[in-house]
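Lab manual, section 2.4: Encoding a predicted structure.

Procedure: take the sequence of the chain (976 residues), apply the prediction step described in section 2.3, and record the output as structure tokens. A sample record is shown.
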Amino acid sequence: MKKILLSLLLVLSVVLSARAQRSGAVHATLVDAETGEGIPGAVIEVAPVTKPEQKKYYTSGYRGAIGIDGMAYGQYTLKITFLGYEPYETTVRITAPRQDLGTVEMREEATKIENVVKEVRSMRTSQRGDTVSYNAGAFKVAGDADVEGLLKKMPGITVTDGEVSAQGETVQKVFVDGKEFFGDDVTSAIKSLPAQAVDRIEVYNKLSDQAEFSGMDDGEGYKAINIVTHKDMRQGQFGKMYAGYGYDFDTETEARNKYIVGGNVNIFSGSSRVSLIALFNNINQQNFSFEDILGVAGSAGGGRGRGVGQYMVRPQSGVASVNAFGINYSDTWGKKVTFQGSYFFNGTNTKNYSTVDKWYVLPSPIDTLQTVGYSRTLNYNNRFNARIEWKISDNQSLMIRPGLSFQTNDPYSWTKGSQRGESGYTVIDNLSDAFRNGYNIRTSAIYRAKLGKPGRTITVDGFLNYSDRSRKQNSYSNIAEPFTGNQRPSDDELTDLLYQRVVNPTYSYRLDGNITYTEPVSQTAQLSMQYRASYNFQKSDKQAYRTGDDFNIDGLLPDPLLSNDFRSGYFTNRIGPGFRYAKERNTFVANIYYQRSTLSGKVENKNSERIRHSYDNVTYFMMGQLNLNRENSLRLFVFSSTDNPSVTDLQSVYDVSDAQYISRGNPLLRPSYTHRVNFHYVNSNVEKGRTFMWMFSLQNTSNYIARSIEYGKELDIDGAVYRPLQYTEPVNMDGYWSLRTHLSYGFPLNFMRCNLNVMGGVNYTVVPSRVVTNGVSARNDADNIGYDARVVLGSNISENVDFTLSWDGTYNEATNSLASSAGKNRYFNHTASASLKLVFWKGFTFTGNASYTQYVGFTNNYNDEFLLCNLYLGKKVFRSQRGEISVGVNDVFNQNRAFVRTTGSGWTQNALNSVIGRYYCVQFVYNLRHFGKRGSKNVRDYDGVAEPRKNGDGVGMSRSSSGRGFRGGAPHPPLR
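Recorded output:
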């Protein structure tokens, strides 16, 4: 019996052992085929060959490790996928307890953006080099949201009044699938594409055209965004059309009837793409930036080079009626020529009622300024930009960038008020009625050639810019002396108006030429030599007349001390070597240049004078890119630059258009010299979907173009005596400092299906100035330190439930070195906002947003706060539910405000401007979706787009918490 039992146990153990041996494990290491770095987070699909429907899924771990246990003996299909890589598929036969596949290599699906290799997408974010890539599918927004709504949910990116910042830097250009989109107008670009069409968003440092080809970073790059669309959505038509009508029962200053009509249509057919946008409204919605070639917004200074976005500015304060339309076109002509171009027109009629309270403290006389004002500005702008690239051969290419802009600006304004305090009592009574117009023509051409040996290149480029502007202005201002006695007369008795007419034609041109040669010295190192010549000419003929109150100049001669004919020319030569080292995705670039600038000028007025100066400088540029691994990267910039003074700053002629604040230029100004350090660190944890960014920037400027402010000065101008409250001149001063640091951390909250982004930063500036009081001159440093924080919680549930909660606040301290410690100015402002879009039963929709804003002054003891709330109820219409009709109220509590607080050397100012208030409205929106060869209208038929629920896909109007208009992304409002 014992023998039988022992025999049975032996047989059973053999059987169990045999069964145990019938399952095994698969092990492998997944790596990037190019770099050999491990790839964590890849999806591994395993299915038996005989039963392919029995699929199981696994993910690769740390450094790409793969371990799959408990696989029964047999043959399996193993498929590995990772966003941005070509799928890997193989057949595995399990015949042993451990099957080791060794190293499995995956190759990238590389997408190039004008010769710069872009980053691959990941679960939420990933990075490669200086590029951070966001997977759009990980950030769910409403079905009708545009790219702006998508960007607002991504870590490290902020959108404020249409201006986009990424990693602490302003985004200056947007690309779509590697092609420029609406030139330098970032605001129009992010509002012209639906979020549904986006596969991923790539944020990177765009090199200049010359640097992209040679590989030698020249320091003229900028922050850019590339919008990568879904592959299957690159064939079709899509966009949004909308219209709305509203009525304002409460307004006393604006039109009661409100309207908006607009939309965007994108027609994509492979490489041929046309995008159309239009916007017509009277509710202050300005979804664009305009090109300010006239400098009416302070953007058209002289000698600023040819940087991207040089003249682009956001709309100004006030309530605007807007007419705007634009077109963007890109295509490939044949096999060798690509074209990208855009045209945009905008016309605005902006009206603004304003109040200003301004406090002067030490080192200024202790005064208080209080004014009310009105302005009406008509502005019309046309701009055309194009990019044409001809690939002559495999080794040669030619790129041409033409551009043309026209602008007219017709401003009218008046200001009334008083200034009182230690300087006495002064009546403020000013009026200005002007007309400005001008045009700007520019073109650049760059020829690039490879000279046989890899890394040996030559680049020749040139740039031409011609600008012609004119200004005609009628103005008056009070020139009466401040009253300092005991019994103050009436304001009429303290008013003595000076009437002026100014005619000021100006033109300028700039010519640049550059040649760069690069030579490889090893497989990882490259040398370069660059020579650049630049000539910048400016001419201004200012004729100022003292007139009567009819501004008639018949029979009058220009005032010789208020008029002049000024011309200047800067000729700059720069030459120097460069070095580049690149190995295993780590890069170091260093350039150093000797620069000689010569300024020659002539001022012709009552006392003619000639100007001639020469300046010798050494400028440098260094960049280091260190990729520690696929998740961590460091990038450091150290560079210097020069900046020439503007033609206005160089004119030694008095400007008495406001007789209480007279200014004069300084022909002895020298170019400023700036040193900068920029540092970026990015960590992307692809497994956990976490993204951390740190930005640090430090800037110091010598020969900074500062202001000399003199109080109580008496001026004798051609026999007329003026005693302005302030007299200013530009002067060169050392000691300008700017420090910025910014942290951003974003991560998913899986338990509530949301994404949380936390940001914070510090800004510190020191702005020098010269203060002259009673003939005594002293230096004043205006220090300002600001601490800012922002928290954003964005839903990631579905297109039918889209909400965002946010809070941001800023605390500022401003001090002046000439003031006592008690002169510190402390203030705080913060905004808490919430927005919600719901699509529920039978396609009904609810849209609401609210924001609470508070401004607190600790020094001046003020507290201004308001609650802005917008509510809309809508219904999806049509079988496809692409349409939506909604009714609602904008600014439910009628509390909207436009409060602006600014500080400077010895002063603090609070200002209120016009805004749109409460109105009731009805609106209609239709979302166009027509994709693919057969034109399917179902978005779920296309790559990467989630299937909408039965009660609708969330298409409709998206309104931001700022909600001053009918639809999302309304511009910053201004005061009622």
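Check your result against the sample. Helices lie at 2-20, 147-151, 186-190, 209-214, 647-650.
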